[in-house]
Amino acid sequence: MLLQTGNTMATILYQFGPIVLIIVLMYFILIRPQKKKEKEVQRMRSSLEIGDEITTIGGIIGRVVSMKEDTIVIETGSDRSKMRLARWAIQTNNTPHEAEAAPAKPAEKTEK
């Protein structure tokens, strides 16, 4: 009887092992990178400043004129037309910030 219990446990592991492995792989291949990207986009949206050039998810390019908690106002085109957008509609920030653009340079050694 003990032999049969051990044999059924091995059978259960062989049946459900691949399913568990697939779920773990799906987490590391799909879910984890998506959450990392969402955090990065959220950080970009929260670090917007007045004067930044942005692109919306609809492809509209403009410069940030004013910001509120959930909305921003952008200025587009040469006629300076203004649009109010939801903050979640911002896709990219096209303005390079100095802290992001200039990586830390190692100290140069001078010979004497």
Give descriptors for this structure.
112 residues; alpha+beta; SH3 type barrels; 5 strands; membrane; transmembrane; protein transport; Preprotein translocase subunit YajC; transport
Question: What does this molecule look like?
Answer:
The chain has 112 residues and is of the alpha+beta class. It has 2 domains: 47 residues; 47 residues, SH3 type barrels, CATH 2.30.30. 44% of the residues lie in helices and 24% in strands. It has a 5-stranded antiparallel beta sheet, covered by helices on one side. It comes from Zongyangia hominis. Its main location: membrane. It is found in: Cell membrane. Belongs to the YajC family.
* Rg, Cα atoms, Å: 26 Å
Question: Which series of helices and strands comes N to C?
Answer: HEEEEEH
**Separation of termini?**
84 Å
Q: What is the number of helices?
A: 2
Average pLDDT, rounded to a whole number, is: 84
Q: Give the percentage of residues in beta strands.
A: 15-25%
Sheet bearing the most strands, described? Answer: 5 strands, antiparallel
Give the % helix: 40-55%
Beta-strand segment tally: 5
Q: Layout of helices and strands, plus pairs?
A:
Layout: H1 2-46, E1 53-56, E2 61-67, E3 71-76, E4 81-86, E5 90-93, H2 98-101
Antiparallel strand pairs: 1-2, 1-5, 2-3, 3-4
In short:
With 112 residues, the chain is an alpha+beta fold. The chain has helices at residues 2-46, 98-101, and strands at residues 53-56, 61-67, 71-76, 81-86, 90-93.
